[in-house]
Amino acid sequence: MNSLFKYIVRLADNSLILGHRLAENCSHGPYLEEDISITNTSLDLLGQAEELLIYAAEVEGKGRTADDLAYKRPEIEFYNVQLTEQPNGDFAHMMARQFFMDVYNYYLYTALKESNDSTIAAISAKSLKEVTYHLRRSSEWVIRLGDGTATSKIKMQEAIEDFWRFTAELFEMDKVDEELITEGIAVDLNKIKDLWNERVNTILKRATLTRPEDGYEATGSRKGYHTEYLGYILAEMQYLPRAYPTAKW
């Protein structure tokens, strides 16, 4: 498989699956303004996914479209990190998952806007404007809940601990990364990891939350391995296009 194609799809799948997860929570926010923020964040992510999948289809050169890549790939051909597919749970869990991904995306797109691939660089620069807001919002919620009431602190700490084992996978690299780093297209995730840890530690400290100990780490998304939850997401997300494959939307 073309390394550039696979790399672009990885980026797209993170946004696509997380965007879908957030869309599930539309109309379930704690109050109107936050409900709108959840929906807008979902739309931002889906927009990023669409631009990346359009480019991926172009790079692949096999006549597939962005819709084909989103709605007609099987689970084993999705490469999103497992964190993005975890259930929404309560509001604290949704914010913890979002926070971890926002910190990652912020530093990833900051680096990728300097990519030697002009399309990736342009999409990253545009996405960074949105991700900067996402990070500010999720960081504020982690602090507000962590340093809030006794109940909100417990819920936020539990959420951080529940999702911690999925964070190490954000920084895994393989031959695809190595090849594209050499070409100045991809980013060395070891550098992103250092920045991620620094920002996460700062926010957790401000939130009076405890950083979990590293232990069992989820892995496998680089090879298309996922938790049970992705299958349910795809069953819902892909149903109509698969049921009516010749329909024009």
According to CATH, the homologous superfamily is Ferritin, core subunit, four-helix bundle
Determine the oligomeric state from the structure: single chain
What structural class do helix, strand and pairing data support? mainly alpha
State the end-to-end CA separation.
Answer: 29 Å
CATH architecture level-2 label: Up-down Bundle
In angstroms, what is the radius of gyration? 18 Å
The helix-strand sequence is HHHHHHHHHH
Mean pLDDT: 94
Instruction: Determine and state the CATH class.
Output: Mainly Alpha
CATH topology: Ferritin
In DSSP terms (H or I, runs of 4 or more residues), the helix count works out at 10
Largest sheet: none
The share of residues in helices is 55-70%
Number of domains: 1
> What fraction of residues sit in β-strands?
under 5%
Shape: globular
DSSP, total strands:
0
Uncertain runs are none
Give the structure's gist in a few sentences:
With 249 residues, the chain is mostly helical.
Characterization of this structure:
With 249 residues, the protein is mostly helical. It has one domain (3-243): Up-down Bundle (Ferritin). The chain has 10 helices and no strands.
Helix and strand arrangement:
Elements (H helix, E strand, L loop, with lengths): L2 H21 L8 H29 L5 H6 L19 H22 L5 H29 L3 H15 L10 H8 L6 H18 L21 H10 L1 H5 L6
